[in-house]
Amino acid sequence: MNFPLIASLVSILFAQLIKYPIAYLTNRKSAKLNLITSTGGMPSSHSAAVSSLTTALILEYGFNSPYVAISTVFAVIIMFDSMGVRRQSGEQGIVLDILARKHLAEIDYISDDISYDEVEDNPLILSYDIDDYERMIINRYLGHKPSEVIVGTLTGGFVAIFLRLVLL
């Protein structure tokens, strides 16, 4: 049995499944079932997966194992990326959404007000309408706050330890 793999996958599932109850308890208005399948939110399932993998490898091979070293570096990169690049991408997505909605409102959802120069610069502009735009919106939960990463890390570690106790 590949305990590190099982622990990581269970941690992802567990972290994703508890997102909705946590959102419901903390802010009922923002609690939607699609949180279970989305990225971002509390806790970070990415952090849960990599911390569970590292914890399982420590339990399986000991702290001095090269596998633990590889997993730890991998975990740190994943966690920093989720708080940095992915979070900033999500925030920029919100700003772009606001600007696009403002622009669509100003031109009355792709109207005759568009000049030939605008179409020449971006020929795709005429092929989109508001329905297409709604389908293409970036997920607002793209990245993580530090607290979401910390809770994800703790969740993954506890899941790995719990599974080790149950499976032995």
UniProtKB/TrEMBL annotation:
UniProt-listed InterPro entries: DUF212
Keywords for the protein's UniProt record, in alphabetical order: Membrane, Transmembrane, Transmembrane helix
Any Pfam family: DUF212
Residues annotated as transmembrane: 61-80, 149-167
UniProt protein name: Divergent PAP2 family protein
Species whose genome carries this gene: Ruoffia tabacinasalis
